[in-house]
Amino acid sequence: MSQTITSQAEKLFAGRRLVIATMHAKEKVIAPVIEQIIGVSCFAVENFDTDRLGTFTGEVERPDDPLNTVRKKCLTAMDAAHCDLGIASEGSFGAHPVSFFIPADDELMIFIDRKNGIEVTARELSTSTNFRAEEIKSEQQLLDFAQAVGFPSHALILRRSHQDNTSIIKGITDPAVLKASYHALNNAYGEVWAETDMRAMYNPTRMNVIAGLAQKLAANIMSCCPNCHMPGFNMTEAKTGLPCEYCHSPTRSTLSHIYACKHCAHREEKMYPHGKKFCDPMYCDLCNP
């Protein structure tokens, strides 16, 4: 990317205020990255309630998919702050889509510039997570669970059962409170469910993933279209078909990345994005079926 194109992108954002839509202190890791790379001044809205769009613990179901949810979150914060620049993120947790036995943190982040009609997203699917839940039968089992998930630096949630949304104790970071909460629930209901608190302010591991995603989003914002010079010239598709080094048949490995501009529809195909023109035969379905 030429310095001229980069400078034009910087002119669009330099000195402007940008609201970060969060109630879980994400601005602590997002703002330093975005301010340095984009040149804006970041702030968060006080008492901004993102839980109305869905909670990890299920009291409020998330009615929309992650993209629509994160877009709505961003626009709502922008309206509340009377600001035309905004960033929001949304996390989902569960089994990794490929390695099913490994938990994953799927984070999505969006940047919206209403003034210039710009929307840029970035996604990070990370296996760096302590996401876990377990039915607890004893205090010792609870302590073992807590140690395994990084307590007390990572908070825990206790509730009556996995499906119960009425007796929930969140944000537990004190060992004495953890034990007392367990015994109170166990004495009242005879069952206890423990899970990791995945809210960013209570989960340093997730916060690190969000910080890395902010770097990726900033890079996507500053990647400008070589045709119209607008920000957000990002990869939209990965094409498979990298030829096998032995038999030269197309494989499922990546051959190219397609980059597209939302403003002028300019497209470019960048071949061999991983620096390899051939695929190892061990990954070829013909040579190694």
CATH class of the largest domain: Alpha Beta
Distance between the termini: 41 Å
Radius of gyration: 23 Å
Lateral arrangement of strands in the main beta sheet? 2-1-3-4-5
Broad structural category: alpha+beta
- CATH architecture of the largest domain, please? 3-Layer(aba) Sandwich
The total number of structural domains is 3
CATH topology descriptor of the largest domain = Rossmann fold
Low-confidence stretches: 1-5
Describe the structure.
By secondary structure, the chain is an alpha+beta fold. The protein folds into 3 domains: 3-129 and 201-230, Rossmann fold (3-Layer(aba) Sandwich), CATH 3.40.50; 133-197, Dna Ligase, domain 1 (2-Layer Sandwich), CATH 3.30.1490; 236-283, no CATH class. Helix content is 29%, strand content 27%. The longest helix is centred in the C-terminal third of the chain and has 19 residues, at 204-222. The chain starts with a helix and ends in an 18-residue tail after the last strand. Mean pLDDT is 91; it is low at 1-5.
Spell out the key features of this protein.
flat; five-stranded mixed beta sheet; alpha+beta; Rossmann fold; four-stranded antiparallel beta sheet; Dna Ligase, domain 1; disordered N terminus; 289 residues
